[in-house]
Amino acid sequence: MKTKKETNCRLGKTGGQAVLVGVMMRSESTVAIAVRRLDNKKIVARVKPTKTIKDKVKFFRIPIIRGIVNFIEMLILSFSTMTASTEMLGLEEEEPSKFEKWLERKFGSSLMSVISVLSVVLGVALAMLLFVYLPIGSTNLIQSITGWERGWWKVLVEGLMKFVIFLCYLLLVSLIPDIKRVFQYHGAEHKAIFCYERNEELTVENVRKQSRFHPRCGTSFMFLMLIISIVISSVLPLDSFEQPFVRFCLKLPLIFPIVGIGYEILRFSGKHDNLFIRILVAPGLWFQRITTKEPDDGMIEVAVVALKASLPNEFPDFVAPLEGREEPEEAKNQASGAQEAADTTTEAKENDVKEESTVHENS
Predict the structure, then answer these.
(1) Integer Cα distance of 72 and 236 in angstroms
(2) Which of 23, 35, 137, 278 is deepest in the core (most CB within 10 A)?
(3) Which residues contact 20 (CB under 8 A, 6 or more apart)?
(4) What's the rounded Cα separation, in Å, for the pair 313 and 67?
(5) Is the pTM of this model over 0.90?
(6) How far apart are CA 204 and CA 207, in angstroms?
(7) Are 46 and 322 in contact (CB under 8 A)?
(8) CA-wise closest residue to 212 among 224, 199, 226, 195
(9) From CA 152, how far away is CA 119, in angstroms rounded?
(10) Is 295 exposed, middle or buried (0-12, 13-18, 19+ CB in 10 A)?
């Protein structure tokens, strides 16, 4: 009699994102950002509850639809996380420029929200340009040079161009020192999640030995989106339109079903482990050799803090090093030092008085 295979309840319970000098972890109830400050090298965290519209509206929990909703929510969270992590680094504030002062006068306290929205729009526009419009234009250029007739080869060439652009983009950004450090924190994030999912104690030693390649990574998600876009494009007769801009406009709405299908595949692969799943996620794991690097122990410590802080119900005894928590202690030390200095000064004055009295008596 076959026994039912026991499922791991920790699989898919938390996910994360690397930031400039830290890690963000998100569970069903909590978002935690941990960074290592640049001024004193201490780890600080920012923790807040999180909600998803999927919990309120049943329609948004339908497969495929929930993937689209998750993609939009994570896109917004990613940009807000980048803003928050930068604020936590302890950088010295510089004198704002005239343009920055003008922006602050115009938008006031909502300036950061405006910048975040603008960043999202520009980021999506850049992605559309690189992975949709540029492959279409390149394919049309090749067709005009070679004189090939439209057909299935056009879909393959467009797909190949997407892979080449994606690979070149990753290789180029990996040469930037700050991005290389982000990729190290990306590796630390994956290792910490693996350690948690395998029910091992979250120590630096246990986390360090884990793999930095995770099947639910955003890099794997991007790869799946490329594959799915090729399959969908091969089914739909979009190659009959010659104008690149027309084809671009027709392909733009396809982003949503592609994202939804990719999310379901990634979700399934993260909770199952068999030969088919390993073959399916293998290309995405290969790409992670670029987007993840081996972290040092300090980076692992940051990832562990973020992970524990994002799961308060599972780690109730963990006290996150929240921003400002160390300030009272520092103030206390400063006050103590000032008091000691005052006591020393008073004692010195009393000794001087005693010496003067002795001199007068002897004289």
Answers:
(1) 25
(2) 23
(3) 35, 82, 85, 86, 89, 178, 181, 182
(4) 26
(5) no
(6) 5
(7) yes
(8) 195
(9) 36
(10) buried
SS3 per residue for the chain: CCCCCCCCCCCCCCEEEEECCEEEEECCCEEEEEEECCCCCCEEEEEEECCCHHHCCHHHHCCCHHHHHHHHHHHHHHHHHHHHHHHCCCCCCCCCCHHHHHHHHHHHHHHHHHHHHHHHHHHHHHHHHHHHHHHHHHHHHHHHHHCCCCCHHHHHHHHHHHHHHHHHHHHHHCCCHHHHHHHHHHHHHHHHHHHHHCCCCCCHHHHHCCCCCCCCCHHHHHHHHHHHHHHHHHHCCHHHCCCHHHHHHHHHHHHHHHHHHHHHHHHHHHHCCCHHHHHHHHHHHHHHHHHCCCCCHHHHHHHHHHHHHHCCCCCCCCCCCECCCCHHHHHHHHHHHHHHHHHHHHHHHHHHHHHHHHHHHHC
Q: How far apart are CA 346 and CA 353, in angstroms?
A: 11
Name residue, tokens 């405006």.
114
> Residue 171: how many CA atoms within 13 Å on its side-chain side?
7
Query: In this structure, what token pair is assigned to residue 97?
Result: 């420029």
Tokens of 10: 């920790």
Q: Encode the chain (363 residues) as per-residue pLDDT tens digits.
A: 444 455 667 777 888 999 989 999 999 899 999 999 988 899 999 999 998 888 888 999 999 999 999 988 988 888 888 888 888 987 766 666 676 667 677 776 666 667 767 777 787 788 778 877 788 788 878 877 877 766 667 778 888 888 888 889 889 999 999 999 999 999 999 999 999 999 999 999 999 999 999 888 888 888 888 888 888 877 776 655 666 677 777 777 888 999 999 999 888 887 777 788 888 888 888 999 999 999 999 999 999 999 999 999 999 999 999 987 654 343 334 334 444 544 555 555 555 545 545 444 444
Return the structure tokens found at 327.
């300030």
Cα atoms in the 13 Å half-sphere on the side-chain side of 48: 10
What burial class does residue 355 get, using C-beta atoms within 10 Å of its C-beta: 0-12 exposed, 13-18 middle, 19+ buried?
exposed
